[in-house]
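Figure 6 in text form: structure in, sequence out.
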């Protein structure tokens, strides 16, 4: 006699397949979650490492900026020291010249004239003073022009001022250039030479 299985084997097989599918699906989900977690951890670690590098770079940039600023300040101090050294050297070199110049101002001062203010800017000397008459001012201008240490006197203003009921003085302002013996002669020689050279060039051009 044939053996017949009357149990619901199809439903049982379906349940087994369903259980295997659920197990496989759970394994896939667990694996995917593990992969996502691992990827997230890797990305977080990479971001933290990059942030650490960025912080290190920022710190190094700050250090370099501080050094650059320090170098700039040192350059400015060096330039200031060089300028001061140059001023001191110029003063030391011009000390005899300045003394000679004041001596010449005293020597060129005629009777009846006195200075009230002297101001020197570079080689230009601005003079204010008072004289008994215009003739005294003219004498002062001639004396300044004849000096080897002073050149190009220029009278900018002269006017009569009454100091009291009787006293009267001529207040004047003039400027003069500080020079040295030989400079005026060298300039006078250089100007005719340049003029002659220009004439020679024009002559050659005309011949061509």
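Output sequence:
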């Amino acid at each position: 006699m044939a053996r017949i299985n009357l149990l619901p084997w199809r439903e049982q097989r379906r349940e087994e397949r369903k259980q295997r599918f659920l197990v496989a699906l759970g394994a896939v989900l667990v694996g995917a979650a593990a992969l996502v977690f691992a990827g997230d951890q890797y990305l977080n670690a990479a971001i933290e490492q990059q942030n650490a590098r960025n912080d290190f770079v920022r710190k190094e940039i700050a250090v370099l900026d501080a050094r650059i600023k320090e170098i700039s300040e040192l350059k400015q101090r060096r330039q200031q020291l060089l300028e001061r050294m140059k001023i001191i050297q110029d003063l030391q070199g011009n000390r005899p010249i300045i003394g000679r110049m004041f001596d010449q101002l005293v020597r060129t001062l005629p009777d009846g004239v006195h200075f009230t203010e002297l101001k020197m800017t570079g080689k230009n000397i601005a003079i204010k003073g008072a004289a008994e008459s215009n003739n005294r001012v003219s004498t002062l201008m001639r004396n300044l022009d004849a000096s080897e240490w002073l050149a190009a006197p220029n009278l900018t203003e002269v006017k009569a001022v009454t100091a009291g009921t009787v006293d009267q003085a001529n207040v004047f302002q003039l400027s003069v250039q500080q020079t040295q013996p030989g400079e005026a002669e060298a300039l006078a020689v250089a100007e005719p030479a340049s003029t002659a050279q220009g004439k020679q060039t024009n002559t050659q051009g005309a011949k061509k």
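Caption detail: The longest strand covers residues 150-162.
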